[in-house]
Amino acid sequence: MLGMVCVCAMMFSMTAFAVNHDFEFEFRDLNNQQTGSYEKSDNDQKWHISLDTVNARTGKANNMSSANIFGCKMHRNYNDTVDTYHTFSNYVSAYPIGYSSTVYKNDVMHMVAKKDSNSTSSASLNISGRFAP
Question: Which of 56, 57, 60, 123 lies at a C-alpha separation of 20 to 30 Å from 50?
Fold first, then answer.
């Protein structure tokens, strides 16, 4: 009986974990690129991003820096006013970003990204990581 109570308590106290989606970009200019579209796997009102120092697929080092800045924004495929633009010059892991309006499980989301116009480096920006809408 005690075992059943513990199992039930664990089932109801578990938090849902958002599904991560890999991405990689090479920006040779300031034009936008975007990821594929994915259904949001939870009702969390934050999305998470991880930026890798090394591309796990290719083994090539990423080169984001304070002179080569990465910018991104989460988009919903309808009613797209869910996020503001964010910039990164440091690598992060599961960094949480709050939505600016309510999103729901199963909303179809994608990330739009670019080399930020405040970048002073003329080098291409190579960046990879994961995001969970």
Answer: 123
DSSP conformation letters of 29-49: SS--EE---EE--S--SEEEE
Confirm if 45 and 107 have CB atoms less than 8 A apart: no
| Burial letters 35-57, b for 16+ CB under 10 A, else e | beebebbbebeebbbbbbeebee
In contact, 72 and 110? CB cutoff 8 Å:
no
Q: Residue 3: what are its φ and ψ, rounded to 5°?
A: -60, -45
Contact between residue 125 and residue 19 where contact means Cβ atoms under 8 Å apart: no
Q: Give the end-to-end CA distance of the chain in Å, rounded to a whole number.
A: 39
| pTM of this structure | 0.86
User: What domains does the chain contain, in order, with CATH numbers?
Assistant: 21-132 (2.60.120.510)
Q: Which tens digit of pLDDT belongs to each residue from 80-99? A: 899 999 999 999 999 999 99
Q: Token pair 């924004």 is at which residue? A: 73
